[in-house]
Amino acid sequence: MMSAYPKNHNPFADDDEEDNEVQNFGRGRGYEDSTDSHMSEAERRQKYLQQEVMRTAQSAVDSSQRSIGLIYDSEKMGIDTAEELKRQGEILKRTERMVDNMDEDLKTSQRHINTIKSVWGGFVNYFKAKPEPSAAPEQPIAYEPSSKLLDALSQSQGHQDEYRQSHLNMTTSGFGASGISSEESISSQNGYPRNQQLRAIHQQLDDNLDDMSLGLGRLKNLGLGLQTEIEDQDVTLDSLMNKVDRTDSKIRATNQQIKNLK
User: Fold this and answer.
1) Closest CA to 222 of 12, 118, 114, 74
2) What is the per-residue pLDDT for 163?
3) What's the CA gap between 170 and 187, in Å, rounded?
4) Closest CA to 221 of 151, 170, 139
5) Are 55 and 201 in contact (CB under 8 A)?
6) What's the rounded Cα separation, in Å, for the pair 209 and 61?
7) Computed from CA positions of residues 146, 150, 151, 153, in that sequence, does the dihedral angle turn out positive or negative?
8) What is the pLDDT confidence band of residue 120, given thresholds at 50, 70 and 90?
9) Which residues are paired to 187 by β-bridges?
10) What is the pTM (predicted TM-score) of this model?
């Protein structure tokens, strides 16, 4: 019966390769032969798993740091949107005052037209008592955005400098990835590992999660404030459009009356 191996194949070579794979477990993942040569297979496996714990914890910190950055960017965009809404509200308020002034001017024009149209207008005006001096025009009321928007905007703006100081310059690669002994890996009473490097990573992760929670809360308040302001401006815009329509009708009627006087 013919052999499945070529004539120059050594049947004992496969066993040697398997032994080499066991001995080289973890090599190529950052471990040097000089440090692992005195370790048994079980010790190398333990060291590999311990460093994987460090890498996983560090990855979680990096991920939370990126999430905080995304929250910061979203909050900054919300602040810019809120500022733009405030400017838009001021424009709507000024436009509404202009339309109100136009309506008053049209009322005055209508009184003049009525006087001109009256045959006895001159005599009537002569014997008519002089009109009382008109009261001074009221000072325009400054535009005030919704209180929800102002409160949320104040909170978010106050956090911008704090974020830059505490996070933008933070380096998340300085915790290291050294091994953890079996005793150090046991959790202490406060819930943090006894290993200093792993403890620092866990504490940083907890701080980042707290910042994420607070940031999401501010984003929620900012979103509610934006919604309230948009709804208020929608009401103002509807009122302004109605005033514009009425003023436009009065202007057309006044123009037609002036044409009839010719």
Assistant:
1) 74
2) 74
3) 27
4) 151
5) no
6) 9
7) positive
8) low
9) 193
10) 0.63
